[in-house]
Write a sequence for this structure.
């Protein structure tokens, strides 16, 4: 009996010791050196790049999708649609990291700060993928809707804006959410062009403190938490729209 | 009001309309009948250019819709259309369905459009459904709403593309009643239909389409009591 009690006592003592040592390590790695502020800066940059790129991506994707949607029966738009196709093909064929380096060292060489460059580069990349997502959403809306709008005298663009788009959003939004999650994780290569994003921040801390487990572990956990949060929000939004059918 | 001159339409080399000539005058109620595949719907959809004809002219209120310089959107405001599949806007209430086009095109203010819409809904007995969404309506109610949606633009002519073909039989009557009232009020109508009773009773002229041409044209009596061609006799024997 006494054995069992002493086992638990030493066991708890061991667990207690473990946590004590771990917290001490965490303090040493992140707090004592003020390194934690870098994490917030990194997280901020990651979110700024993700959201900025998402906005640019949705914009580019929508324009391309609408051009291609109308090019099916408007001959004058065909050359423009062909250009859009080239854009999509080229962008989808280039790895994101290479694209980022090209923007940073060639196209936007004059930019002093890497963040705007990353926003544009990730946005241009994302736009190519968004275009197809948005186009398939537009095509999922019954052709009779366009005909009904036009028969009332609405122009193509008016019908697109008021009739087709609001219905297509239901199909497009989940896909955009998934694209956003992919984008969030993809921005982790931003460190290639001297941006301190979340990944780079924690990797720098790792480099300074030689504490790989806690830095990289925390990095992974933050990404995981963010993607889980986005997935949850997305699910809620989808359920709300399904109810609105 | 509408003058169709040598209207032709091909789909990828298949000739669907092979040169049609017809004139639709103000106050006419023209029914278009004929076997399936004759080009009835294509003919109707060419009238407001939802289908682009490959040849000929559609003269509507003095303008040739085939002329590239003509603004089709403006002319379409004067041509209401009712579809077989209703094509109501599912994300809008009945009232919004009716008011969106007149308000967007600045034909009416929101208040005027809503007043007009409520008045029209009252006439078809659906005033209490103004706030409903299309999915909450029966097929017959949807089609009646589709008709008054088109009327909200105060068109000069109404085109009906098999308006009762997608309806359960017990709902056909309520839609035809609305159309009859409309005809009685003097609306110019072109109706593609399989409802021979309606064609005979309401129209003042019937077009029999077959093989991409207007094979016979005349008053309901002429068409239904004294058919001239074998094709029409055969067709009537099958449908009557």
């Amino acid at each position: 009996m006494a054995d069992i009690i002493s086992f638990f006592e030493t066991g708890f003592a061991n667990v207690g010791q473990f946590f004590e040592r771990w917290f001490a390590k965490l303090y040493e790695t992140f707090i004592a050196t003020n390194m934690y502020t870098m994490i917030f800066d990194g997280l901020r940059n990651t979110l700024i790049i993700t959201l900025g790129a998402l906005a640019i991506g949705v914009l580019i994707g929508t324009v391309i999708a609408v051009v291609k949607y109308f090019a099916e029966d408007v001959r004058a738009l065909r050359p423009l649609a062909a250009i859009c196709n080239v854009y999509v093909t080229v962008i989808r064929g280039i790895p994101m990291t290479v694209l980022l380096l090209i923007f940073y060292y060639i196209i936007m060489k004059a930019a002093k700060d890497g963040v705007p460059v990353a926003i544009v580069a990730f946005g241009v990349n994302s736009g190519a993928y968004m275009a197809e997502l948005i186009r398939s959403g537009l095509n999922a809306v019954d052709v009779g809707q366009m005909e009904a709008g036009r028969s009332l005298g609405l122009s193509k663009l008016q019908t697109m804006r008021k009739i087709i788009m609001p219905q297509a959003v239901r199909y497009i939004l989940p896909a955009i959410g998934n694209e956003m999650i992919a984008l969030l994780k993809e921005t982790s290569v931003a460190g290639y062009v001297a941006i301190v994003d979340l990944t780079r921040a924690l990797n720098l801390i790792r480099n300074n403190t030689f504490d790989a487990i806690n830095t990289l572990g925390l990095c992974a956990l933050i990404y995981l938490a963010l993607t889980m949060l986005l997935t949850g929000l997305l699910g809620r939004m989808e359920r709300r729209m399904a109810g609105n059918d | 009001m509408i003058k169709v001159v040598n209207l032709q339409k091909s789909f990828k080399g298949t000739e669907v309309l092979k040169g049609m000539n017809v004139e639709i005058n103000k106050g006419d109620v023209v029914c278009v009948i004929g076997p399936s595949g004759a080009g009835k719907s294509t003919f109707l959809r060419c009238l407001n250019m939802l289908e682009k004809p490959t040849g000929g002219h559609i003269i509507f209120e003095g303008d040739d819709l085939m002329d590239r310089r003509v603004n089709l959107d403006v002319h379409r405001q004067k041509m209401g259309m009712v579809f077989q599949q209703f094509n109501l806007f599912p994300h809008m209430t009945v009232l919004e369905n009716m008011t969106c086009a007149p308000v967007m095109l600045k034909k009416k203010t929101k208040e005027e459009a809503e007043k007009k819409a409520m008045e029209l809904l009252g006439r078809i007995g659906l005033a209490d459904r103004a706030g409903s969404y299309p999915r909450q309506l029966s097929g017959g109610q949807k089609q009646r709403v589709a008709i008054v949606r088109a009327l909200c633009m105060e068109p000069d002519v109404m085109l009906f593309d098999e308006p009762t073909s997608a309806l359960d039989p017990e709902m056909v009557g309520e839609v035809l009643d609305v159309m009859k009232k409309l005809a009685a009020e003097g609306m110019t109508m072109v109706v593609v239909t399989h409802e021979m009773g309606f064609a005979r009773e309401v129209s003042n002229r019937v077009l029999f389409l077959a093989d991409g041409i207007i094979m016979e044209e005349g008053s309901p009596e002429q068409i239904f009591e004294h058919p001239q061609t074998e094709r029409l006799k055969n067709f009537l024997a099958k449908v009557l």
In short: The mean pLDDT of chain A is 92. The two ends of chain A are 66 Å apart (CA to CA).
